[in-house]
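Anyone up for a design puzzle?
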């Protein structure tokens, strides 16, 4: 079903009410508003946004720091920052300190990597799908993430080379999408990041493949029922064809297309580290992504 103006308005209102609640406790949580960047939405992503009735919208994010009272201030010379995108299958989760997976992960980065004194966690729009009214399908979250990157470079003042884009699970694919988008579009004054950190990225969004890890790790990976329900996948697609699940934007680790389809795609990527668990159902798709990036 094609998106309607009513659906679009409901989608924006849904995301805004969530952010307003975050903003009310900004002094305690490090929340800041991030303005939309519609002028940066071009090419294939603009096409997908039009198909799904998605537009740029005001978003937000959370600053974490080990230095008291040093949140969104201008960076010191050579200062590096982690731009983190949380997981949650595109339909849940948060960059807020109240969301324990994000808080624990970011605390680990700050406690164990002395080169990082600050982390900025984007609060991107979450998708909603059937049986509920469709809201924020692809590429809504990516539009927010692009705006967040612009915020770090143009408003806060970080050099792109000093930004490490990080993401876990679905956030890992958002991190990959942002990096790919910056590499393809090559915006003047908005160079790609200095490094990419992918923590158990959802490299195959459909995850319906008969790979070894999908068969062997059903009992060791708690997300088996999530894959079977496919709620997140349907919410992400919106009005797009399911065929998009077998293409590089949503599934760079899918076995459903040949390596030749991504030949040269990663040549402009920064240094990348991928962390994968041996007992994960999606382990093989992450290995495929690794091999394609190294090819």
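Challenge accepted. My sequence:
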């Amino acid at each position: 079903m094609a998106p309607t103006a009513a659906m679009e308005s409901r989608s924006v209102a849904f995301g805004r009410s969530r952010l307003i609640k975050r903003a009310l406790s900004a002094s305690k949580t490090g929340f800041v508003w991030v303005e939309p960047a519609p002028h940066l939405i071009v090419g294939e992503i603009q096409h997908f946004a039009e198909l799904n009735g998605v537009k740029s919208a005001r978003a937000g994010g959370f600053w974490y720091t080990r230095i008291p009272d040093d949140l969104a201030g201008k960076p010191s010379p050579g200062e590096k920052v982690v731009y983190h995108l949380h997981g949650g299958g595109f339909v849940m989760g948060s960059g807020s300190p109240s969301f324990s997976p994000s808080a624990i992960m970011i605390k680990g980065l700050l406690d164990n990597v002395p080169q990082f004194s600050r982390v900025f966690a984007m609060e991107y729009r979450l998708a909603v799908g059937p049986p509920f009214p469709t809201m924020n399908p692809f590429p809504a979250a990516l539009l927010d993430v692009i705006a967040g990157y612009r915020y770090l470079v143009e408003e806060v003042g970080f050099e792109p080379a000093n930004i490490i884009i990080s993401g876990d699970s679905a956030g890992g694919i958002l991190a990959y999408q942002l990096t790919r988008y910056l590499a393809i579009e090559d915006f003047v004054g908005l160079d790609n990041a200095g490094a990419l950190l992918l923590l158990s990225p959802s490299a195959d969004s459909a995850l319906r493949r008969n790979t070894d890890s999908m068969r062997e790790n059903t009992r060791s990976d708690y997300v088996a029922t999530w894959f079977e329900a496919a709620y997140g996948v349907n919410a992400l697609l919106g009005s797009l064809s399911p065929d998009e699940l077998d293409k590089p934007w949503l599934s760079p680790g899918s076995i459903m297309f040949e390596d030749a389809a991504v030949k040269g795609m990663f040549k402009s990527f920064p240094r990348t580290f991928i962390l994968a668990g041996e007992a994960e159902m999606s382990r093989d798709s992450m290995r495929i992504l690794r091999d394609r990036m190294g090819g």
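A detail worth pointing out: The mean pLDDT is 88.
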